[in-house]
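Suppose you are handed a protein chain with no further information: no name, no annotation, nothing but its sequence. What can you learn? This example shows the usual starting point.
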Amino acid sequence: MKFLLGLTIVIVFSGVVFAAPVKTSELYVIKFEASWCRPCRMMTKSFQDPGVKELIKKYGNRSKKGKIDGKPYVVDIDKRDKSTITMVRRYRNHLTGGIPMVLIIDKKGGVLHKITGYRSANALKSFLRL
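A reasonable first move is to predict its three-dimensional structure. Written in structure tokens, the prediction is:
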């Protein structure tokens, strides 16, 4: 089992606890949404908050051109392209709570933290600060 405690990842394996510091630049923010989902559209506005954008800039997210842009990676589950299908299959066990869903993942794709449902900009700031 993995979970974040502050900026330290804690791994519990066979009753033994391992802890290691985590750099936010080695973590990524992914948002699952759909065009027909009203809470998803509302949450898109929350992600446009300047404070939220500043927090996301501390993560490893980059634009397609490699620039730090303060945006989460977005997976629109309505699309049927290869990358969307891959992401939905990879994280299908986490999609049980519905959408919108935001994941913080590590470099290997492991889910460290998750929220589902609409969140205001202030709630997103708290979530992203860990």
